Amino acid sequence: MCENKKLSEKFVEVLQHEGVVTIVSWGVETHVANTWNSYLVITEDERILIPAYGFRKTEKNIDVNNHVKLTLGSKDVLGHKDYPGTGFVIDGTARYISSGVDYDLMKQKYSWLTRVLEITVETAKQML
Description:
By secondary structure, the protein is α+β, with helices and mostly antiparallel strands. It is built from 3 helices and 7 strands. It has a single domain, classed as Pnp Oxidase, Chain A (Roll), CATH 2.30.110. Helix content is 20%, strand content 41%. It has a 7-stranded antiparallel β-sheet with strand order 2-1-5-6-7-4-3.
C-alpha cells in the first residue's frame, strides 16, 4: 500500500470477514447495489476493484455521475472503544474496466465477471 494511506489496517481487516458491501450511485436515478466483502480487491495504489456481472443501473448512473458511496462492515472486527463490530463509508469515483491488467487479474479470480467496477477512494471513514 502507498505511504499516504486512505484505507486503514482496520479496513483491510474488515475485508477478511464476510459482510455486505452496499454501493450507492446517482445520476439517471438513485440506485443501491450489493456485493460481498470477499469480492473486493485492493490495489497497491488503494483502488478498490469489484467484479461486476450485473450492476447495469449502477453503470448507467456512473456514465452520468461517477461519484459513488460504499458502505461495508463486519460484526467480527472490533471497532472504536472495542465496540463489537465496525463499518466504513467510502466516498470515491467509479469507472468500469473491460480490458487490461486489472481486468485480467480479476477475471482470473472471478471467471463469471463481465466488467470490473473500479473505485478510486477519496475518503474512507470508520463509522463504529
